[in-house]
Write a structure and sequence with these properties.
Structural class: alpha/beta
CATH topology: Rossmann fold
Distance between the termini: 37 Å
Number of strands: 6
Radius of gyration: 17 Å
Order of helices and strands: HEHEEEHEHEH
Helix content: 25-40%
Strand content: 15-25%
Number of helices: 5
Length: about 180
Amino acid sequence: MGQVVSAFYSWFNTEKEYKVLLIGLDNAGKTTTLYQLHLGQAIETQPTIGSNVETVKHKNVHFEVWDLGGQATLRPSWVTYYKATDALVMVVDSTDRARINSVKEELWRVIQSDDLKGAFVLVFANKQDLKDCMTAADISTSLKLHDIKDHDWHIQACSAKKGTGLKEGFDWMVQRVRQSQNK
């Protein structure tokens, strides 16, 4: 009986859930970003070993958001999550000038994967509430975002702890999703 109800529900429920990968170096604020979007508040987090996944609903669009651990030893495993990904969100610690080149290398390595063709890219310039942070424009230049030709991309200044800028970034994602539905 459960299978019949499930089949009946899926027949009438045509709402697609979009897969989003939330990546970045360790301590960039990925998990804080995820739970700020999911719960509407910052929570105490620990370094992610493996992944966290939550459904985020924004403007009636459902996103299955995968928060992937950012430690150097975990980054090679990101590739196992690429299949059927609609969007990539790179969270950047705007105060971490020493590792901005590593962020650039990881971003470019990831977006060159054939499994991510067609995925759009959102870069969150996180920790904008902290002193001496790089601006979104500084980060855009450092990551060479204007050289990205195979993906729609956007950079959004934000503070995951305060929740500022996150909705605007997801507004952009919703716009991309809706445009892709109309093609």
